[in-house]
Amino acid sequence: MAFKFTPRKKFCRFCADKELSLDYKRADILNDFITERGKIIARRITGTCAKHQRKLTTEIKKSRQMALLYYTAVHSTEVKKKTI
Ligand SMILES: [Zn+2]
Q: CA 62, 67, 69, 71: dihedral to nearest 10 degrees?
């Protein structure tokens, strides 16, 4: 149950929601923190705190290895449609 990414409000989503698991298996959540090209979005844009950003980076990389996270723009758009 990913909620919309709001660029205007800056706060760490993982600190705000303790129930939100930061896990490589949650591609729906990780997708909010990467660009369409699969690049990780900078912390100052997402508002994620240093601690969680570090974990996020690790999980995204892990997720890529597991091929759960899509690389191409086409695929990532498809995933976004489902989660929003
Ligand atoms: Zn945090």
A: 110
Instruction: Tell me the pTM.
Output: 0.66
- The CA 21 to ligand 1 mean position distance, Å, reads 11
Q: Per-domain residue ranges for the chain?
A: 13-83
Tell me the CA–centroid distance for residue 14 and ligand 1, in Å. 5
Topology (CATH) of 13-83: 30s Ribosomal Protein S18 (4.10.640)
Distance 49 CA to ligand 1 centre (A): 4
| pLDDT by residue, tens only, the chain of 84 residues | 455 555 556 789 999 998 998 998 888 899 999 998 889 999 999 999 999 999 999 999 988 887 654 554 455 555 556 555
